[in-house]
Structure formats: structure tokens, C-alpha cells
Amino acid sequence: MFASKNYQEAMKMYENLLLEEEVFSPAMLLKMAFVSEGKGDYSSASFYLAKYYDQNPNPRVITKIKSLTEQVDLEGYQMDDSDRLFRFLTDLQNEISATLAFLLVISLILLIIFRKKADQPIHFLPSVFLIIALFVSNNFLSEPKTGIVTGSPTLIMDSPTAAGKLLYTVEPGHRVIIKSSKDIWYEVIWKDKKSYVKKDNVTRL
């Protein structure tokens, strides 16, 4: 439908896939951003581009979001070498876990086969290491939860209460890492510090 320029019908199908079935591809997100921008819905276009950025970090995406939101600088899109490494590992999380599980099974089989000789604590170290590594891979090697600021203006506070200290007032387009949820607030990372924003002002990616 998109190829035949039937954009509205294609958009309905894409929205159903994304919102109802939570299925999407990078190409689909770019098409949704294109249609939304054409309709003048820059907020939605920025959302789709930010979600695309989560899957494929690209400086050109940041430039486009800046253009749509009329922002000079955007927070939350910066990536250093450690971020790229973590991203690489999370992309391979299933493969890493499967490999560790396979090696663990082999190590346990070897312990059973050579149980008479493997009577020293050091012989159990590989299995213990693999169990710990598998636990870390399954429980900590996952992509951070992110969101895009959509409220205008959005107040960033130092505590989850209206009586807290106002840290920043920002406009839509910024990206935040969501650490936790508390009542009507998200705990987020803003400028490398723990902060809070109202859920109504942030759309989860």
C-alpha cells in the first residue's frame, strides 16, 4: 500500500502492528515518520524517529528530530564507546545466553564423567563462572527503557512531587532513559543525574 502511495491505509496498518501487536521494523518506522510529517503531525513523526533511533542510532536521525521539534540541542541521544559496546551486547543477548547455556551443559557433563577425578574445588570454577555469566546475561543484558518528551513544557524535578525542586523546563524531542515508575512520575536520567518527570509528558518508546 505504501508503494502505491496509499499512505492513509498503510498508516492504519502500521499503527495496528505497532500499537496492538507491538511488531515493527526500522523501515516501517521511517515510513510512519514520513507520513506523519506530511500530515504536519511533527510530534508523532519525532516519536517514530526516536523509536527508530533506539534500534539504529544515527546522527542524521537526531538532525531530523531537531528540525521537526525546532530544537537546537537535544538531550538523551549521545552515545559513547561504552554505550555502543552495551548496545552490541544487547543485540546479541539471545546468542550469548544460548552459547553460555550450551557451555554450561558441557561443563556439567564433563564433571559427571570425570567426577572421580574432579574432586577439587577448582574443577567446579568453570561451571560456577558460567552459571554467574548466564544469570547476568539473562537478567542484566537488556536494552534500557526509553521515552521521548512530548509535553510542552515538561518540568524536570529533583523528586517525584509537585513540591520538589524544579531542575529544568524543556520542550518536546528530548530522549530520556526511564529507570522506574512511581505513581504519576517516571524516574529518568537527565544530564547523567536521577530526575523525575510526569508520565503525561513522556511517551514510552
Question: Could you list some keywords that capture this structure?
Answer:
SH3 type barrels; alpha+beta; 18% strand; 3 domains; five-stranded antiparallel sheet; 205 residues
Report on this model:
The chain has three domains: 7-69; 82-140; 145-204, Roll (SH3 type barrels). Helix content is 49%, strand content 18%. It has seven helices and seven strands, in the order αααααααβββββββ. It has helices spanning 7-20, 26-38, 42-55, 59-69, 81-91, 93-113, 125-140; strands at 145-149, 154-157, 166-170, 175-182, 185-190, 193-198, 202-204. The strands form two sheets. A five-stranded antiparallel β-sheet has the order 6-5-4-1-7. The model has no long low-confidence stretch (mean pLDDT 87).
Topology, element by element:
Layout: H1 7-20, H2 26-38, H3 42-55, H4 59-69, H5 81-91, H6 93-113, H7 125-140, E1 145-149, E2 154-157, E3 166-170, E4 175-182, E5 185-190, E6 193-198, E7 202-204
Antiparallel strand pairs: 1-4, 1-7, 2-3, 4-5, 5-6
Helix pairs in contact: 1-2, 2-3, 3-4, 6-7
